[in-house]
Design a protein that fits this description.
Distance between the termini: 34 Å
CATH topology: Porin
Order of helices and strands: HEHEEEEEEEEEEE
Helix content: 10-25%
Largest sheet: 8 strands, antiparallel, barrel
CATH class: Mainly Beta
Radius of gyration: 20 Å
Strand order of the largest sheet: 1-2-3-4-5-8-9-12
Number of helices: 2
Low-confidence stretches: 1-6, 8-28, 108-112, 191-198
Shape: elongated
Number of domains: 1
């Protein structure tokens, strides 16, 4: 709980700092922003992203994520064997991401003969995710023996994300994205776990892997934030 509270305070501080910077200066020349993922907390994590434009249609993004700062994910099965009274994963960990955006094509504003904000438009973004977390899990040690375990998972994913970013009244922004790529992790297969689950896919919170590791992965989300100068 102390770790989670500290992370919450850090995210609030960074967000408030960005807002104060935005209020102090004109946003006409803003080429940076801070964004929060609005769907992340429902999936069990939170992330904050910093973006800075390097040149027209080119920018980089850096992301810090906290796994566990959000909904506590429930087990996909009920505990009727070891009676541990544990029904949730209590996930906790961190991840980092770095991406390079290119191909922004600012749209022309309707009825106004001038380009929209330089940070608005469609884009493609190669991005690298690296993270680690631990979570509760019921494991089958033998045919009639089960135990509550808390394995640690480390993952990395290289993806291409495509999306579109809108700037609202030169102050706020909305960023929608969808990504596909390749992920590798050390998450154990569930063929020896409780209920003999045979799925080999992995839910890594900010990233979903399909099939055995390494395998195809995907991401999606909507971020909202503020421009800063």
């Amino acid at each position: 709980m102390i770790y989670k509270a500290t992370c919450i305070l850090a995210l609030l501080f960074i967000t408030c700092f960005g807002y104060s910077q935005d209020k102090k200066s004109s946003t006409d020349g803003a080429v940076q922003n801070l964004k929060l993922d609005i769907f992340g907390p429902f999936r069990g994590y939170s992330q904050i992203t910093y973006e800075k434009m390097l040149a027209p249609r080119k920018s980089y993004e850096l992301t810090l994520g906290v796994i566990g700062l959000g909904r506590n994910q429930a087990f996909p099965y009920s505990d009727t064997v070891i009676q541990s009274n544990q029904t949730h994963r209590n996930q906790f960990g961190f991840f980092l991401a770095a991406g390079y955006k290119f191909g922004k094509l600012p749209l022309l504003e309707v009825g106004i003969k001038k380009p929209s904000h330089v940070m608005q438009g469609a884009y493609a973004k190669p991005i690298l995710y690296i993270g680690t977390y631990s979570e509760n899990r019921i494991e089958r040690l033998s045919p009639n023996k089960y135990s509550l375990a808390r394995p640690a998972t480390t993952f990395a994913a290289l993806q291409i994300e495509v999306g579109k970013q809108w700037v609202v009244k030169e102050k706020a922004l909305i960023d929608f994205y969808l990504g596909f790529g390749y992920c590798i992790d050390n998450k154990g297969y569930y063929s020896t776990s409780y209920w003999n689950l045979t799925t080999t896919s992995a839910f890594n919170y900010c990233n979903d892997r399909v099939g055995k590791s390494p395998g195809i992965s995907f991401t999606f989300g909507i971020k909202t934030g503020l421009l800063i100068k």
